[in-house]
Amino acid sequence: MPAFKAAVLIQRWYRRYVAQLEMRRRCTWSIFQSIEYARQQDQGQLHEFFNYLVGHFTPSSHHESNILSCMLTEQIHPQDLELETCGDYKAIEVPANYTGPRLSFPLLPGHATALVEAFRLKQQQLHAHYVLHLLHETRRHLAQLPNITRVSSCYGKELTVCGDLHGQLDDLIFIFYKNGLPSPERAYVFNGDFVDRGKDSVEILMVLFAFMLVYPREFHLNRGNHEDHMVNLRYGFTKEVMHKYKIHGKTILKTLQDVFCWLPLATLVDEKVLILHGGVSDRTDLELLAKLDRHKLRQQDPQGWPVLQGPLQCPLGSPGAVPAGTTLEVERCQQRAGFPGVQGQEESLPSASEGDLDAGEPLGPTQEEWQQVVDILWSDPMPQEGCKANSVRRAGCYFGPDVTEQLLQKYNLQLLIRSHECKPEGYEFCHNRKVLTIFSASNYYEVGSNRGAYVKLGPALTLHIVQYQANKATHTLTMRQRQDFTMTGFQEKVTLISRVEQSALRALREKMFAHSLDLLREFKKHDKGKAGMISLNDWAVALEAVLHLGLPWRVLRPQLVSSSVGSTLEYSAWLQDLAKDWPSRENIQSSLLETLYRNRSNLETIFRIIDSDHSGFISLDELRQAWKLFSLHMGITGTDDCICNLAQSIDFNKDGRIDINEFLEAFRLVQQSCSGDTAFGHMQDSSCGGSSES
Amino acid sequence: MRFAAKHVQRGGGSSNLADARAAAPCQAPAQLSKYRGSRLFTNRSSQDGFTEIGTIVRSLGCCPSEGELHDLLAETLDSAKRGFLTKEELIKHMTEEGEPFSQEEMEEMLSAAIDPESYLIHYKDYIATMVIDEN
Hints:
heterodimer; A: 3 domains; six-stranded mixed β-sheet; disordered C terminus; B: mainly alpha; EF-hand-dom_pair (chain B); EF-hand calcium-binding domain-containing protein 2 (chain B); Hsp90 protein binding (chain A); Ser/Thr-sp_prot-phosphatase (chain A)
């Protein structure tokens, strides 16, 4: 055989292998993303549930109205907060045996670096006294800032822009150590989503706020959609705070609600580069955004509370119209829902609001203002032209290259830098390189799932992107400069892809399990002859019809179906096989179990809302009430007793209080955070240790 | 993992499914149908402009089996039947003959193929590690 031909065959073989690896990687990525999007759809359900409560439900008992009242009035009046937090930290004593970092104000650079060191090396926790003092000072500082921070770059100074961190302290520390700590010569912009999901959101906030106070002219923060109380309830930040600060957690959370509302909305560099968290819409108006009172937008998670805390539909000034975003509005809704005793609450409102009303000015944000802010915090770019509602996130929009172009021209801009979406390489250009997504949380879905990145703006606004991937087990970090290509070994890549794949497949199996009954129904439709078997093709069609994930089921089949005779599958046996991985409860029917799995995220959120003092406990009564309401809305019948029996069995000390975590744990409904540690830790030591840094 | 896609573009990569079928005749049509209805490749604006379809084609295309490959290497590159190749020999062949590897591809192949102690490529072992389960 001539050498030429031989070479071709060898090359083809190699390239096929590499391509197959890439296919697997993309499949895995696709699984993670589609499951994440499905979760977002869940939130839409919760929104509908609350709408249902407000619109249709009349409480028939004192109990029920209490629950509803809990769920509908998660509002704190801003005036109260000032008084509360002022005195709060002073009253908290720091014990003599506290060995963690101590802060004194005004903060010095040494304090900020001491924080970083304490968190990184000694894994210490900052005492609540200092946390609250820091938050107090942060709030004071933020309140002076405009909605849009204007920054000028100048020769000799770097500006680095970082994206979502989501509680992953390893990545933040890496950025500071590779890129350098913030300084008057080294400016930073952090583009939102500092918290939720990862396990060190508190520490990240402490570090970011500290540096912001130390270098106010060089260190800038933008608000993200996760800097929001309702989102935090669902995605883990609330839980983290309560776990780390058992006594003062509630105060810290209340203060943070306020601090989040004071975060600036965007940063503009040299009047040319616009940095904001989500994106833009075809009606984005920077002048309006610059002028509005951002602090009034308390709850801007439209998925949880648009009816209550977003503006009312009727225009301001018309009779009966109530200023949006106020306690007044909430109470108007409560009246509609038939709450007793609401009249009394109205009188206790501070006189400030009445004064404002008299002046004839709107108290809260208008519909327009609210929409503008939601757009910039929640929107995503899309390849097609136009601007349409963001159906996945149920907030903001999808904006096309024409919208970007229109905006850049209107304000004479060159580039839009945004975050909000995880990218395999940590960054991605789109819209003709006019939009840059930068995402700084590496291994976001799973250890090995993606790189993180940050971008440095140089002279003439040139861009230099740096990628990295944190290796938690060995605490080493691999870094790759976009320009000079350094790679980890091929075998390491393969191993990593396999591992991430396993994690994605498990998540997928869980989702399939949670829809077992629906799947069975769908399979039976394809099995007219009642043979108990269907073709593999029908299997794929059925899965998509039920799950709507848009995954290549036929490609995934070998990893999801272990037993098939020829090209047919015994579907009942397959479903039973799926169930093996999950605990069965003798006293809970499988259909209920499935319902709980499917709705676990919403249930957890509801419980945490009811637990308004964030103690981690709700009463048996409250649980029963909440379940009754929820099951009513979801059309689940005959399960009340079941749930109550289960709850009672978990109430070990019979004091009528249920530990939320334990209840959810009983069904293994609680998401594991950073579960990569044990499974992958020891393996990573051997294979990834040799990665190079340049 | 850009290498595969990059190469296809250079070799006149396909831009739609029909072309892809034509380019990979052997088992491709049946296997390509595996992707029917999936959203794996929709809505993605690849920043370097590579055609996504190239990756699929590449992953399905005909190529020698493990055993055939071993014999191929033994006959054409290792006539002395040493059981190994030197780094230089492999590089020369892969970058100068056939559909040449890019520097990136070469480096990546070497990183897994080269035995760090002997600095040689024991191709039998190497091929054995590069097997992906067939469906």
